[in-house]
Structures are given as structure tokens and as C-alpha cells.
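We give this protein:

***
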Amino acid sequence: MISGLTLFTLVHVLISFVGIVSGCVVVYGLITAKRLDRWTWLFLASTAATTITGFLFPFNGFTPAVAVGIISLLALIPTFLARYRFSLAGSWRWVYVVGAVFALYLNVFVLVVQAFLKVPALHALAPKGSEPVFAVVQGTVLLAFVVAGTLSVQRFRPVLA
């Protein structure tokens, strides 16, 4: 145990943070019409690793975390295909952009949930996770990603190799 965390949990959290940080760089690249190939690979690989390791935690039955994990995998599959199999050609460009932005949104969504569960000051504001402050924060995050996604679809037009 490391400060109440298992090594597995710590690795999962670190991979999640790598996915979030690299995903923010990738979305910035999408908005500014830059491919950022290495950042993209890091983002997609770490996001897939985060999702897969999330399924390895013990759980009983179908939980919201399992649902988010399934949705994340369903978003990542066409995103990987669009980027690495179809090279962003034609409509695969927007499939990639929407999938990448959505995958990052899911990571940040979970980050907010975990922050309200684990950070004492936030937990005090929304102990059940259904209080207005939690909804406002999640709504703001969603709105930011809708704006980022819209700008990304409009602006990201990569030069195809």
C-alpha cells in the first residue's frame, strides 16, 4: 500500500493522468489544425490502457464505472481505426476527431467524479454526487468539450500522407 492506494491503483491513476494531459495537447492540436502524431499515439494508447485497467478492478455486477468503460472502448475502436487504418481519409477525419474528443471527455468526466469522491473539500460540497454543485461542474465540463469538439471538427483538416 502507498498512502492507502495499491500499486495497481497508483499505476492506473498515473496512466489516466498521462491520457488526460496528452489528450488536452491532442485536442489543442485539433483546434489549431495540427496532427501532433506522437502526442496522438500517447493519448490513444494511454486512454486505452486506462480503460482496460479499469476493468481489472474488483466490482460486483454492472456499475456506472463499467458502463463508462464500455462506452470508452466503443469510442476508441473507431477512433483507432480512423487514425491508423484509414489515415483520416474522407469521413474518417471527423470520426477520429469526434472519437478523440469524446474519449478525452470521458476521462475528464471520471476525473471529476473521482475528485468529488476523494478530495475532502469537494466531497463536502457534494457527498452524494447528485448535488447542484456537482451537476454544474459536470455541465461546465460537458459544455467545454462540446465547444472544443465543434471547433475541432471545423478546423482539423490534416494533410494526408
